[in-house]
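**Fold tokens**
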Amino acid sequence: MNYLKKAQKEELEIVHFTSDELKSIIENNTEFQCGIRLFACYQITRGASIDDVASFYSISHKRVRDWVMNLNKGGIEGIIDQEAPATITGICENKVRLMREILLEKKPCDYGFNCGSWTWATLKSTIAYEFQISYKRACFNGLIREVKMKFIKYGKYLINFH
């Protein structure tokens, strides 16, 4: 793993991209993600420890282990993100469209909340009010997938990337 340590000693500067832009490019391209996972597995075959690889990529030990296990089990296809199985969220297609419109076009303050960004609590209350459906927090990932949106945590607020 000496080549990783040597790379860390020399300081270089990226001029045309920020770290957030580069991360976004990687996260939005399945082939790039697969290449990174494959290279991490390659490093394991070269004798790098799981901890070294996890540290280098700033990810968990478990994630590296999962990549190796998935590569062993399913080959290259095993390390490509698979679509999560569909979940039953209780919202029909028309309500999914309405929920998406609410999230894109309205703000929590439109529903009487004192904040400008959606949080899990404001989203849960809005869904209960608009659709008479009560969700536990664990079910929200399925709901967000159904409305074809992605949320990232930023402090205590959720920011929409669609």
User: Anything to note?
Assistant: Residues 2-79 form one domain. Confidence is low (pLDDT under 50) at residues 84-88. The helical segments are 2-9, 19-27, 30-45, 50-57, 61-74, 93-105, 120-131, 140-146. Strands lie at 150-154, 157-161.
